[in-house]
Amino acid sequence: MHVHPQRLTVPPDQNFVVFLIGARVNKWWLVPSLWAIAAAMRRMMKELEEDPSSGLLAHESFGGRTTLMVQYWRSVEELQAYSRAKESQHVPAWRAWIQRWGLGGAVGIWHETYVVEPGRYESVYHHMPAFGLGKVGPLVPAEGELRTAAGRLAAGASAGARAAAAA
Questions:
Q1: Would you say 134 and 125 are in contact if contact means Cβ atoms under 8 Å apart?
Q2: Is the pLDDT of residue 48 over 80?
Q3: Mean pLDDT lowest among 26-35, 45-54, 64-73, 154-163
Q4: What angle do CA 38, 39, 43 make, to 5 degrees?
């Protein structure tokens, strides 16, 4: 991974969705079940990565007793369409989770969905490879009005107001 030495940001002028999802092992002797869930998630992510029209923009994963995956989507409609598509990897994985672990509480799952508008987010990356929203990009220098968090939020709000006026 290439580490960018300069301070970079993603222009705060786009709409997107942040989807957080994870699982938690509630009964420690069932930790191996988390491997099956992780394998299902890897299949889903591979399927989404291979289909640029899916709407998935980028993702990051973090492990532990409670797992976390952060996903960036173009729209909530595309996220929901994937979750409901009977031909997708998600539907059989969801059914398997319910049958194997869901009803007994051995493994919990969680997710949160955030619809993000211009001017409602900001980001900065310094001495970092492309990460998180920075994978979605484009990465630009965090200079001028984009130098501070307040400046990035204001720039995004201005861009959002211009887009609303043009619509």
A1: yes
A2: yes
A3: 26-35
A4: 115
